[in-house]
Amino acid sequence: MKFAPDVNGKFTLTSVLLLLLAGCNHAAPTLHGYIEAEPVRVASPIGGRLVQLNAERGSQITQGQTLFVLEQANEQAAVSEARARLAQAEATASSAPSASVIEEQLAAARATANLSAADLQRQTRLARSGFVSDATLQTFRTRHEADTARVQELEAQLRAARAGTQAAAAQVAQRRWSLEQKSVAAPVSARVEDTYFRVGEWVPAGSPVLSLLAPQAVKVRFWIPEADLPRLPPGSKVTLHCDGCAQAIPAVVRFVDREAEFTPPVIYSRENRAKLVFMAEAEPAPQDKAKLRPGQPVDVSLP
């Protein structure tokens, strides 16, 4: 930086300070935030007593690994009962005309009904012209009604033949689903953040048994002053600094809130003054997320 002399050719203290302050205005500001994590809370939609817990706090688990098991006696009995009903329905269906046979009969009955409908329509026109008596017309009408009734009867038989085994099979599938919900596997590979029940305790339906923290669930939350918004659109690169971090950690801004706040949380702000700020989130690279801890304060340097 070069300093220009005053009108007398000398540098004054005031001119130097003004130049220094002007240079400071171009320095990249440092913002303040913290590490936030979004754990996955794993629960079962069906309640029961916890009989097996295969993960401890702090342990690493892999996707698909069984995390916990609830008692399954009732669900196993329900599956056995549903399977017995399915076998009975299949036996009943085998002794009665099969669905394929009924379908063939139904096709023939519909063809007969269409033919009798055409005959009735033709005889009706002849009766209006006086060539057919009312008794003859009634005979054709009665035959068509009988053919229509036969079609309806076969349609009902076909529905019954299909519904018996289908309903029993659907019940088996439902009972098996309930049984499977009593054994819960890890949806992602992650670290066990916390456990909320011990073996032997009753777990209400929908209550998380444990929480998982996957590496990709770690992010940085910080606040941007209104004046710096144009410098940090989504996709911008920032640098993170934290106590205990050997090196600065690069991150990418993924989100900037549309609504403003008046102050960031006091605990994460070095100056408790009212100013317009916007919450933003940045994401470090996957290899750097493991270095950060939820709740850890960080400084965010702008480009």
How would you summarize this macromolecular structure in one to three sentences?
The protein is built from five helices and 14 strands.
Which structural traits does this protein have?
single chain; 303 residues; alpha+beta; 38% helix; disordered N terminus
Task: Show the helix and strand layout.
Layout: H1 13-24, E1 30-37, E2 40-43, E3 48-53, E4 60-61, E5 66-70, H2 73-95, H3 99-128, H4 134-180, E6 183-185, E7 190-195, E8 202-203, E9 208-213, E10 218-225, E11 237-241, E12 249-256, E13 277-284, H5 286-289, E14 297-301
Antiparallel strand pairs: 1-10, 1-14, 2-9, 3-5, 3-8, 4-7, 5-6, 7-9, 10-13, 11-12, 11-14, 12-13
Written overview of the protein:
The longest helix has 47 residues, at 134-180. The protein is elongated and about 105 Å long. The chain contains 5 helices and 14 strands. Mean pLDDT is 82; it is low at 1-5 and 9-26. The strands form 3 sheets. It has a 6-stranded antiparallel barrel. It has a 4-stranded antiparallel sheet with strand order 2-9-7-4, with no helix packed on it. Strands 6-5-3-8 form a 4-stranded antiparallel sheet, with no helix packed on it. The protein starts with 12 loop residues before the first helix and ends with a strand. It is α+β, with helices and mostly antiparallel strands and 303 residues long.
